[in-house]
Amino acid sequence: MQTFNPNDHMVFCRKYQQNLPKLPNPPFPNAKGQEIQDTISAKAWNAWLELQTMLINEKHLSMIDPQAKKYLNEQREKFLDNGDYEKPAGYKPLKA
């Protein structure tokens, strides 16, 4: 019988630099998705999804355009690593 270990549901988030609940599943079916699940909290991922939606809408990005996908991948990595990512007009990030 397997016992419940709350630490199995936590991750040290590279965005917020603290232990937080992890994503229940990788966001992508590849090594990058597993890396994100292992290093990014659900809170940080949800903040990214909110920012991503704003970037897509503000810049009128098409998700079938390889350049748009490349741009969003670059912005995602910058955001999750606390780098200098592009912010939409009026964007206010979630507090840690």
Automatic annotation (TrEMBL):
The keyword Iron applies. Keywords: Iron. InterPro entries: Fe_traffick_prot_YggX, Fe_traffick_prot_YggX_sf. One of its GO terms (biological process) is cellular response to oxidative stress. The keyword Signal does not apply. GO terms for molecular function: iron ion binding. GO terms for cellular component: cytosol. PANTHER family: FE(2+)-TRAFFICKING PROTEIN-RELATED (PTHR36965). NCBIfam families: PRK05408.1 (NF003817). Belongs to the Fe(2+)-trafficking protein family. This is Probable Fe(2+)-trafficking protein.
